[in-house]
Amino acid sequence: MTTSPRDPPPAVPPVAESPRRRRRARRRRLLLAAVAVAVVGALWLGGAADLLSFETLREHRDALQQWVAARRGLAAALFVLAYAAAVAASLPGAVWLTLAGGFLFGTVAGAALAVAGATAGAVVVFLLAGSLLREPWRRRAGPALACMEDGFRRDAFSYLLVLRLVPLFPFWLVNLVPALLGVPLRPYVLATVLGIIPGAVVYAGVGNGLDAVFAAGGRPDLSLLSRPEILLPLLGLALLALVPVAWRRWRTRHDR
């Protein structure tokens, strides 16, 4: 039997995964999970969360400034790595790292480094969750998850951008859930970067002015994002991010 160049190629039946390959994949997932748990446990038990505080920054500010001035490139790289580790381990107090970035590197550079570190940490959580948790989650959730996955993936960028701009849920949760719902990596990364820039700039700007706070013996005001002059523009950006979703919904109903 011959086929013309215009004929579609014959369908190839899917190759069933062998039991040995499934066992190897399961062992790899277990090993990866063990390493992730060990690293996160070491950071928590080692007191890394206690270091992310205003008191730590105030106590070591002179030594940090001198070290950054002498080794700015290395300091920037280590700052991004530390920020990524804090986010990946879901350590509380990452906001103090953003303030430290503004204090040590200035508003623009500090915000950029904070965004890079936070995005890298969020990607680590996303990839680990997708590799370790998605299949067990799908089996447990059953068919009810399929409808939610389709709806979320269709407008993943818009939804994620809103969740990043307006912190309605904890940062770690927004890192985790998209991986369970099968969101592609590209819109996840893009929405994360764009969505955390405003908050990073605000807090890095506060950090850039910490010298005056230290001199006065006070503490910085971390309620800035809830002020109307900052919150309202963020809400406006969130609404704009939902415009494409509303437009697609309207077109779907109109075309029926």
Give a quick summary of the entry.
By secondary structure, the chain is mostly helical.
Describe this structure in words.
This protein is mainly alpha-helical and about 260 residues long. The chain has one domain. It has 14 helices and no strands. The radius of gyration is 23 Å and the shape is flat. About 30% of the residues are buried.
What layout of secondary structure does this protein have?
Elements: H1 19-45, H2 48-51, H3 54-59, H4 61-70, H5 72-88, H6 94-105, H7 107-132, H8 134-141, H9 144-154, H10 156-165, H11 171-180, H12 185-208, H13 210-216, H14 228-255
Please tell me how large the radius of gyration is.
23 Å
| Helix vs. strand class | mainly alpha
Overall tally of domains = 1
Question: What proportion strand?
Answer: under 5%
What's the total number of strands? 0
Helix and strand sequence = HHHHHHHHHHHHHH
Straight-line N-to-C gap: 44 Å
Unreliable parts: none
Can you give the mean pLDDT?
A: 79
Helical stretch tally:
14
Q: Helical proportion?
A: over 70%
Spatial shape: flat
Biggest sheet overview = none
